[in-house]
Amino acid sequence: MTLPTRRRFLTGTLCAAGALAAGPTGFVREARAELEIDITRGYVEPLPIAITDFYGETQQTRSVGQDVAGVIRDNLRRSGLFKPIEQGAFIQSPEALRGGPRFQDWRLIDAQALVSGKAEQQADGRLRVQFRLWDVFGENQMIGKAYFTTPGNWRRVAHIISDAIYQRLTGEEGYFDTRIVYVSESGRQDKRTKRLAIMDQDGANHRYLTDGSSLVLTPRFSPTRQEITYVSYQGHSPRIYLFNLNTGQQEVLGEFPGMTFAPRFAPDGNSVIIALDNQGNSEIYVIDLRTRERRRLTNSSAIDISASFAPSGERVVFNSNRGGSLQLYTMDADGSNVQRISFGDGRYSTPVWSPRGDMIAFTRQHQGTFYIGVMRPDGSGERMLAEGYRVEGPTWAPNGRVICFFRRTRADDQGRYASKLYTIDLTGYNEREIPTPQDASDPAWSPAIP
């Protein structure tokens, strides 16, 4: 069985050994499992799942097996769809599982699904990690795969296995093998240091991309997730940068007088859409990354900012005060056919189109309270998912089911405040903090590689 292309594309140190189609005791049958999670409802009772430490023949591989299983448990728990069972309740050991599950033992502790695995050190130094997902009540192997990688890449294997389990049980693509770029903040409110940082979606593998000597704003991933575009100020002059994550090289896309707002890549990665302010009038432009030519999309006396392409590239959502207050509008990719889609009280901002194309997330401010909300592209079905003194900057997980945003507290009399990243399910449940070394704002979730 061939791994998805993105697994091989992203790292040359990771490859698949293939599917584990048959169980070790011969009683496993290949069949469509009956065990599934219906995530189309508003609230889903978490599925009890047993995830054993992965077995290893040596102390080193047993340690890796424990680490891999731990990351899988944490990933699935944070999704809100799974309830990993405490290991102290397990009756069958990881070693005994090599002969196959004793399903009656797992039913006794109410496990509906079981994950077992093994970590092995190969003669060439590579690590082989295999796993099997079992339907406890159906007594079926639902999926089984093995991966080769370098020992230092075990965490990524754990995320990939988490994605495979999530997809097999929910029918939707997982989002664990992804990264988040954001603005790391420190210092007082009136003297804030802001620098780019990147991490895995669970907060691991954290590193800074800039040194904080220049103010940075609004980082966004390219469709290949190998580049980031962001705004940085050299003195009072804003510049748009492209940061290559593979090489660490930065390229100035352009220096623009006045204010420059939130560049975002087009879905094909060949251009960015941006708002430029000229003497108090902000208009939306598309900049071709190959020719650097600018094409103007809006032309009004109003403030037009915060543009985001639909995944098809055919429509754009943005916000504008052309109706009196900042509201959300959509238009064709050539700037024609402008339609207002929000009509609520207050101010709307930072719209971002879902990777699935079916929803638009936004920030709304009304009567001193901020909200993170979603609506359909035609403006119907508006719902608020989170609220607070200041919640802003929604960004979608690549499967379009989870939203990341930042939540900031009021500053105290010393000018100090806290700003943290959170995720929340599209249904409005399961809000969870993503740990970061310092304060954090303006997250951008990486896409999945098709």
List keywords for this structure.
4 helices; 450 residues; mainly beta; 7-stranded mixed β-sheet; single chain; 4-stranded antiparallel β-sheet; 31 strands
Task: Give a topology summary.
Elements: H1 5-10, E1 15-19, E2 47-51, E3 55-56, H2 59-78, E4 82-84, H3 103-108, E5 113-121, E6 127-135, E7 140-149, H4 154-170, E8 179-186, E9 193-200, E10 207-208, E11 216-221, E12 227-234, E13 237-244, E14 250-255, E15 260-265, E16 271-278, E17 281-288, E18 294-296, E19 304-309, E20 315-320, E21 327-332, E22 339-340, E23 347-353, E24 360-366, E25 369-375, E26 383-388, E27 390-396, E28 402-408, E29 419-425, E30 432-434, E31 439-445
Parallel strand pairs: 2-4, 2-5, 3-5
Antiparallel strand pairs: 1-7, 5-6, 6-7, 8-9, 8-31, 9-10, 11-12, 12-13, 13-14, 15-16, 16-17, 17-18, 19-20, 20-21, 21-22, 23-24, 24-25, 25-26, 27-28, 28-29, 29-30
Helix pairs in contact: 2-4
Signal peptide: 1-21
Function: Part of the Tol-Pal system, which plays a role in outer membrane invagination during cell division and is important for maintaining outer membrane integrity.
InterPro entries: 6-blade_b-propeller_TolB-like, TAT_signal, TAT_signal_bac_arc, Tol-Pal_TolB, TolB_N, WD40
